[in-house]
Sequence to fold (184 residues):
Amino acid sequence: MQFLDKYLWLIIVLIGLVSLVPVGLALVLPGNVPVLKFTSQAAVEGMVFCQQAYVSGAVNSPGVYNIVDDMRIAELIDLAGGFVSDADVEYVNAQLNLAGIIVDEQHIYIPFASETNQVSEEAQMSRVNLNTATSGQLEEVPGIGPATAGEIIANRPYSKLEDLLNVSGIGPQKYDQIKTWVGL
Fold:
């Protein structure tokens, strides 16, 4: 009994240290990195995340989601609970590449039908002429900033809209975003 009284503190410390060893190993061994999850994501559960993307607008659960390499836009929308009833799915199918790969920090906005109906009416009334528009007029097009406007102007003249794909800073996704706003 004297032995137990004398070394009780040491026994408690040793038991505590031994119980912490598995936790310590889990933190330092490769492949066992703790994951912080903001949402319930059954589709990607058990995977290690380093990247996140933001989906907003006409989805059931807008927010920031953990993504994995080669995750598609359609999968991100599924994680966000899919489209709400008044989402403009027709616009999304025409303007957004649902098979596109998500990149870290990307923001995907799903418009409501009421928003795109207004945009469609405005787009039909007037399109920005790629060959004559000023930098300021080009910057009014959603997705075109000062640098892209400068590149568009520098690459004139254009004989077809698809020529925009040759402009630095305009890839297929941005082209799909702006093609309804511009003309020749």
